[in-house]
Amino acid sequence: GFLWKMIGDPHGLALWFSDEITVKNNEFTFGWNDSQQTAYLQEIKNGKFIQFQWEEDKDTDFHFKIEIETQDMSGHIGLLVTDYALQEEKQDTIRMWNKQIDDLKRKCGI
Known about the structure:
Layout: H1 2-8, H2 10-16, E1 20-24, E2 27-32, E3 35-45, E4 49-54, E5 64-70, E6 77-83, H3 90-108
Antiparallel strand pairs: 1-2, 2-3, 3-4, 4-5, 5-6
Helix pairs in contact: 1-2
């Protein structure tokens, strides 16, 4: 439902992940202030997950995936982010995702 629209739709992503998004086929250009970065949509499973690879990581296994998980017993919904980064970038990547997820929570009213 609503959470999927926030991660699986370019307009939803633009509300929390970046300031603006331009989409051309499977190429997503994310804009923040004065910078832009392009990622390629690698895989999407409607209502479940979306996976991208940054242009700079082309020809590597590096990618990032945002996945909705539902607990079988409780029905609770969680968001799992997997992002491949170099060891020296790990802490910065974790901080960046924590900020992004905080922005997403605010937009969702959580």
